[in-house]
Write a sequence for this structure.
């Protein structure tokens, strides 16, 4: 699957997803300092699912009317260490394959998904 990890995403999580065979772009290395709108526009342009720890994308996603190939996954998980985040991200991503077209919130014990209007 094609993902775009926001700038706030730890490298360990990006590396873990890449090791699992996912195509993962990472804003921190490719376009540091991008605004949230620029990050979302890139996800759309590259048909990627955005991975973030930033709540602001909830407000941007619905008015943006994302295309079906895109989506946003907001992780609301403990961030005690980058390795713990990587483990939680890998586990959550492996549980589903329907991330595109949805705004998802991943919490410690549940995943909530809502279809994004296109």
């Amino acid at each position: 699957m094609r993902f775009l990890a926001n700038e706030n995403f730890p490298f360990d999580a990006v590396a873990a997803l890449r090791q699992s065979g996912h195509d993962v772009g990472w804003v921190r290395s490719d376009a540091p300092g991008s605004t949230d709108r620029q990050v979302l526009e890139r996800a759309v342009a590259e048909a990627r699912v955005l991975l973030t720890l930033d709540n602001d994308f909830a407000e941007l996603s619905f008015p943006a009317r994302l295309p079906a190939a895109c989506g946003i996954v907001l992780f609301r998980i403990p961030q005690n260490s980058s390795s713990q985040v990587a483990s939680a991200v890998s586990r959550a991503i492996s549980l589903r394959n329907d991330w595109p077209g949805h705004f998802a919130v991943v919490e410690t014990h549940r995943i909530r998904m809502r279809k994004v209007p296109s």
Observations:
- The radius of gyration is 13 Å.
- The chain has a mean pLDDT of 92.
